[in-house]
Design brief:
Largest sheet: 5 strands, antiparallel
CATH architecture of the largest domain: 2-Layer Sandwich
Number of helices: 10
Strand order of the largest sheet: 11-10-9-12-13
Shape: globular
Order of helices and strands: EHEEHEHHEHEEHEEEHEHEEHH
CATH topology of the largest domain: D-amino Acid Aminotransferase, Chain A, domain 1
Structural class: alpha+beta
Distance between the termini: 8 Å
Number of domains: 3
CATH class of the largest domain: Alpha Beta
Length: about 325
């Protein structure tokens, strides 16, 4: 069995996978990318390298770690190392503009979107699309910068006020607002380019939709919280998603995108409009799973991921 190297910058998100790997005896090492030296004058170690770098790294004080990781992945690939979610995958993770082009290439609908680098451009784009509109960060994660505006006055107050959040890459996306009949979106999880399950995610409290257990605690609804749990759960596994008409249309296209780009583990998020048209608006190459939600089924994301890494390490 080859050693599996886990590349990441968030220890809380890495620990559940490490536990799952230990449970089935997969040899692994953690490459915590923060303040790490990359000696490109030597040959990299032999093994399997799994990239779990997140677009939201800068929110944890790790602003330039994705760029460092991109360089590391290129170095590994040039030395013929087996990399899972390599250079092409991290390119998508760090840019929704790149994601939308890849989605359109496989025939998946995305909301009409305009990219802007200054306030004037954001206002012009909003007028072109027509209100209501959503703004979001091109390099996002965790719902960063996602705001809904119904008119120009609201948007200008935000842009020129103290609460404006610029994207870390300087690119703000202005997007048509897809109004769903229900306040929810669907998140579709894949491991080894195969459908794992789909989650229905309640959006009535906003757009911060991270499913990781640590995110649940951040929202104040973890086990240590004194706040009462909401009657309506944030996440819910969708029964029989695989045989639904929506899945029959979307899943093969998502699988084709992953094969074309070179993504092996990912989550796609989509919203349905009033006519049941699905619009995909985000691809998460660094995906996480929620243990509480998975108790509803016999599927565990981190177990499936550990089993996949085990198979690769034996190959």
């Amino acid at each position: 069995m080859k050693t599996v190297f886990l590349l990441h910058e968030n220890k809380e998100w890495s620990e559940p996978l490490e536990i799952a790997l230990n449970e089935i005896g997969v040899p692994h090492r953690v490459l915590y990318m923060v303040d790490r030296l990359i000696n490109m004058s030597v040959i990299p170690p032999k093994g399997i390298f799994y990239n779990r770098m997140s677009a939201s790294a800068h929110t944890r004080g790790h602003m330039h770690i994705p760029e460092l990781t991109s360089g590391l992945l290129a170095w590994l690939e040039s030395n013929k190392r087996r990399v899972i979610n390599g250079s092409n995958a991290i390119r998508l993770e760090l840019s929704k503009m790149v994601q939308y082009s890849a989605l359109k290439d496989v025939g998946i609908k995305v909301p009409r979107t305009i990219a802007a680098t200054n306030n004037g451009g954001i206002l012009d784009a909003s007028e072109f699309l027509g209100y209501p509109i959503i703004t979001k960060h091109n390099r996002g994660g965790k719902g960063l910068g996602v705001k809904l505006f119904y008119n120009k006055i609201e948007l200008k107050d935000y842009l020129y006020g103290e609460k404006f959040e610029p994207s870390i890459d300087g690119i703000t996306l202005i997007q048509e607002y897809i109004k769903a009949p229900e306040s929810s979106i669907t998140r579709v999880e894949f491991v080894d380019q195969k459908l794992l399950y789909a989650l229905k995610v309640d959006t009535s409290d906003g757009f911060k939709l991270c499913p990781a257990d640590s995110c649940e605690i951040d929202r104040g609804i973890g086990e240590s919280s004194t706040i009462k749990l909401k009657i309506k759960p944030k996440f819910d596994i969708v029964d029989d998603f695989a045989i639904s008409a929506t899945a029959q249309n979307l899943v093969p296209r998502m699988e084709r995108l992953m094969k074309t780009v070179g993504i092996e583990v990912a989550a796609f998020e989509f919203i349905l409009d009033k006519n049941n048209n699905a619009f995909v608006y985000d691809i998460n190459v660094n995906t996480n799973y929620n243990k509480q939600v998975e108790k509803q089924s016999d599927v565990s994301g981190f177990t499936a991921l550990a089993n996949f890494l085990s198979q690769v390490s034996k190959g």
